[in-house]
Protein: Thiamine-phosphate synthase
Amino acid sequence: MARIASGDMKERLAVYFIMGSQNSERPAADVLKEALDGGVTLFQFREKGQGALKGADKEALARQLQHLCRAYGVPFIVNDDVELALAIDADGVHVGQDDEDARCVREKIGDKILGVSAHNVEEAMAAVDAGADYLGVGPIYPTSSKEDAKEAQGPDVLRRLREAGITIPIVAIGGITAANAKTVVEAGADGVSVISAIASAPSPPTGAAAALAEAVRAARTR
Ligand SMILES: Cc1ncc(COP(=O)(O)OP(=O)(O)O)c(N)n1
Ligand SMILES: Cc1nc(C(=O)O)sc1CCOP(=O)(O)O
Ligand SMILES: [Mg+2]
Structure:
């Protein structure tokens, strides 16, 4: 299989939902199914933080959520855990600046999707050089979903990356909602990545996912 084309990746980033069992009191599979019904275009399994599953339990949940994503034709990305991604034949991996080196990850995963977090132009250029298929840039706005999140940068960081000549797909992350999605897409993001805007939305989160999809669609056509 060939590497994903940049244009296809940009489409896939429209509504990128991230979740682990720690992000909802409801069963993760129920939340994910309802979010997929609302139009989620990419999913990341991020089993991390207090109460996160480990070992065989983590793998079993990953396989259950992967099965759901497959039924909807939505790629399944694993956060941090390259070995798990390979063991279950996930569609890709997302790593940050403090995780396994992106170039090593690319060598291990071949043509699978590689996402890399970047906070500035230097990190973005290094990620492109290492073979990233997309960049996750944030936090754009304050977030309470990541324990060690950096200070919010605002949408200007997206403009700076584009002005510096970064053309690969970018997804904005951190405090994104349907109300501010337009602002980040207009600043240079191809899509939005969220935890709480979907995982903490009133049940079922189908409408919340649909509202994000509509906000990104409307911003892209302007
Ligand atoms: C799409 C996307 N962007 C950024 C991140 C953050 O990755 P990282 O900095 O490695 O932090 P953790 O998520 O691992 O805590 C992400 N996961 N996804
Ligand atoms: C997983 C993650 N990474 C971030 C980064 O800045 O790299 S912010 C974040 C959490 C995003 O959750 P919410 O949509 O609830 O703000
Ligand atoms: Mg990480």
Notes: The mean pLDDT is 97. The longest strand covers residues 113-118.
